[in-house]
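Consider the tokenized backbone below.
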């Protein structure tokens, strides 16, 4: 009888030890599952951003421990970042913290990751992220409620996002800018400046499609193919300097040297003379050529100036 009681107590003790080990293993496994889940989520996002398909799974991972399947969505730091962004907007007037924002670099990185997540959703044809009850919420997870909160404070989903404009619309913007500022837009002013720079590049390369029609339209409004910020020379100033150069040197071939300062008078005059030759080429092709009118062509010729290709 004593032996039976002793064996029963040993069996009970072993059962208790076994339950303790299972519970301990379950906790460890839950922690491991959460850590791996974070890493796998980042790998999947990185593959999709690079345009790679998801890796297929031939099996579905199941929990090996009791109770693990009942795990619920846990709280993350989205709210913390959101509150920081609200405070940033109150201080700076926008929702555009840089990744190099010294006060809180993590805020800029979070904003960037949220934008990247939205790009992924759009590629998938989704408006919000689809979640299951087991899905963990990350700081960049975009639920409908979170997107609404971000929109409510003016979150910028695409930096410098601007509707695409046609060439004709940009052309009208160019005219309006000149009428307002009395100069052509420099490249530094944004999308219109970039567009203007591209037109000059196409002109300098004599792009056939561009030269056929669009260059002539820009000539008609007196567009300066050489940026004024580069030459800073109008007709009256250029003509006076050119006549003075011709009188002193006996010709009008203004030389240029790499050592010359781009703001120097000789460098500016050389560029201005080059623009005369370009505009004259438009003239002989039967197109109007901006500031180089017929009267000015005759004035130059009467003073001995020789155009190239004339």
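A designed sequence for it:
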């Amino acid at each position: 009888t004593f032996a039976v009681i002793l064996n029963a107590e040993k069996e009970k003790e072993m059962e208790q030890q076994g339950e303790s080990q299972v519970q301990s293993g379950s906790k460890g496994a839950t922690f491991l599952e959460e850590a791996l889940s974070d890493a796998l989520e980042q790998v999947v996002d990185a593959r999709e951003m690079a345009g790679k398909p998801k890796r297929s799974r031939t099996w579905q991972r199941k929990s090996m421990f009791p109770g693990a399947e009942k795990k619920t969505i846990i709280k993350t730091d989205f709210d913390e970042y959101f509150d920081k962004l609200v405070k940033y907007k109150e201080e700076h007037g926008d929702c555009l913290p840089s990744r190099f924002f010294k006060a809180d670099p993590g805020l800029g990185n979070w904003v960037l990751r949220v934008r990247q997540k939205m790009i992924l959703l759009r590629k998938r044809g989704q408006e919000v992220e689809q979640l299951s009850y087991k899905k963990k919420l990350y700081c960049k997870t975009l639920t409908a409620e979170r997107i609404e909160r971000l929109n409510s404070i003016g979150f910028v989903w695409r930096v410098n996002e601007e509707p695409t404009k046609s060439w004709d619309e940009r052309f009208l913007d160019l005219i309006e800018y000149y009428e307002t500022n009395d100069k052509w837009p420099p490249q530094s002013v944004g999308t219109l400046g970039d567009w203007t720079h591209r037109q000059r590049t196409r002109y300098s390369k004599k792009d056939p499609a561009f030269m056929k029609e669009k260059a002539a339209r820009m000539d008609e409004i007196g567009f300066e193919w050489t940026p004024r910020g580069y030459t800073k020379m109008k007709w009256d100033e250029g003509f006076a300097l050119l006549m003075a150069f011709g009188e002193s040197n006996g010709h009008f071939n203004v030389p240029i040297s790499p050592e010359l300062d781009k703001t120097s008078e000789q460098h500016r005059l050389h560029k201005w003379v080059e623009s005369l030759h370009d505009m004259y080429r438009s003239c002989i092709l039967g197109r109007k050529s901006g500031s180089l009118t017929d009267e000015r062509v005759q004035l130059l010729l009467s003073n001995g100036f020789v155009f190239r290709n004339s």
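DSSP finds twelve helices and no strands in the chain.
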